[in-house]
Design a protein that fits this description.
Blueprint lengths: L15 E7 L4 E8 L4 E8 L14 E4 L4 E4 L11 E6 L7 E8 L2
Antiparallel strand pairs: 1-2, 2-6, 3-5, 3-7, 4-5
Length: 106
C-alpha cells in the first residue's frame, strides 16, 4: 500500500541510520539506511578523519568540503530499502553523522 500525501516534513535527516561493523583487524563496513519512504539526495555526513574508502567504493562515499564532510552515493538519491554500504580501513572507528540532505517526496 502506498502512503499518500507525504511531504518533505514527513522525512528528516534522522531517518538516515548509520551502522558500522568491524570486519577484520582494521577494516570497517558502514551501512547507510534511509528509513523514510521519500528518497534523500546530496547526503552529507561528517567524517573529519576519513581518508577514503576501500577500492571499488569510491562512488559510494567521497571526501568533500575540505575533507570535513563526505558525500554519499555521488549525491544521487538514497532510497528506502536500498542501503548504501562501503568499507574503509582505519586504526579506530570513524564517526559518520548525517549533517544535511535534500529530501525528495512526490
Amino acid at each position: 500500500m502506498v502512503q499518500e500525501g507525504l511531504s518533505q516534513g514527513d522525512c528528516t535527516l534522522s531517518n538516515i541510520k548509520v551502522d558500522q561493523e568491524l570486519t577484520n583487524n582494521s577494516e570497517y563496513k558502514v551501512t547507510l539506511t534511509n528509513n523514510c519512504i521519500c528518497s534523500q539526495s546530496n547526503l552529507l555526513l561528517s567524517c573529519a578523519t576519513f581518508k577514503g574508502p576501500e577500492p571499488g567504493d569510491e562512488e559510494k562515499v567521497k571526501v568533500a568540503n575540505g575533507r570535513s564532510d563526505c558525500l554519499i552515493n555521488d549525491g544521487l538519491p538514497v532510497f528506502r530499502d536500498y542501503p548504501i554500504t562501503f568499507k574503509y580501513t582505519a586504526a579506530e572507528k570513524i564517526e559518520f553523522n548525517p549533517i544535511s540532505s535534500q529530501i525528495n517526496c512526490s
